[in-house]
């Protein structure tokens, strides 16, 4: 568990004082992804870097598993925390394998163990070790470099990861792909992750909890669903945007809706020649809704993993679930 207790940071330069983080308190549970969200300059990076003491704290304290980080040995603290920055920070003169093994090398691992770990991580991120290990960072695409940056932070298996806009420089399609990959990996590794973003959609997709900041103050700390359903103030409401009901749909899957409706049919064979629109059980409801709205029949067949038909959904099925305003449905249709 990571506990922020009245954490404050005041930058002082010449005669000017900037309170970048103002008495912030909240707790992050082990194994959860907490996204720090907010506009530029609200203090996200400052708060993140105080956790591994890259930035000295001015007031309050940060505890990791009940221990005040100030009282911990700095090197031990840093080694227990993986850190990923936006421009991945790979060393240009080191190969991919050497980059991944920077911390293991510091920890004195032998060559065989390091090579094994590097191969394992490259595999995990879909990069063939034979093809990529000996390359240099500039021989990789931006998305591949970003994967290596995360692999490097995971190399010594730290229980905590700090990630500062790690996907910010990627184009939207690659970004979504890596986000999904990252979530799958997190299902297995279950790290406690503090993840900075200024993108509400990214936060909703990744977070177990979202902390929204404004001018160094914590505006709301809640689950994505609670933030979308009950924004605490006007700032949060404006930040999440006017289509919060639709955003909530991304948190639920077709399976959730069928279960709620009690409409799981007996499986029947689906005839692909009928050219009906289809959706998968695991699709999120926003994707499902846009497929239904663009289908000529106004409905979509739900397919199970083996391609069998499990049910049919129409727009009106969504009414039972959430108060999607008709104007929002029009927005998604466009
Ligand atoms: N070294 C510094 N000296 C003085 N002021 C600083 C310093 N670093 C950051 N600040 C100020 O502290 C505030 C918070 O900065 P911080 O970098 O934490 O914001 P951020 O939320 O990460 O922004 P961004 O989304 O742009 O990365 C800003 O007003 C910034 O100008
Ligand atoms: Mg920042």
Automatic annotation (TrEMBL):
The keyword Nucleotide-binding applies. It is an enzyme of class 7 (translocase). The keyword Lipoprotein does not apply. Gene3D superfamilies: P-loop containing nucleotide triphosphate hydrolases. It holds the Pfam family ABC_tran. Its EC number is 7.6.2.9. It catalyses: a quaternary ammonium(out) + ATP + H2O = a quaternary ammonium(in) + ADP + phosphate + H(+). Keywords: ATP-binding, Nucleotide-binding, Transport. InterPro entries: AAA+_ATPase (IPR003593), ABC_transporter-like_ATP-bd (IPR003439), ABC_transporter-like_CS (IPR017871), P-loop_NTPase (IPR027417). GO terms for molecular function: ABC-type quaternary ammonium compound transporting activity; ATP binding; ATP hydrolysis activity. Residues 2-240 form the ABC transporter domain. The complex is composed of two ATP-binding proteins (OpuCA), two transmembrane proteins (OpuCB and OpuCD) and a solute-binding protein (OpuCC). Belongs to the ABC transporter superfamily. This is Carnitine transport ATP-binding protein OpuCA. It comes from Schinkia azotoformans LMG 9581.
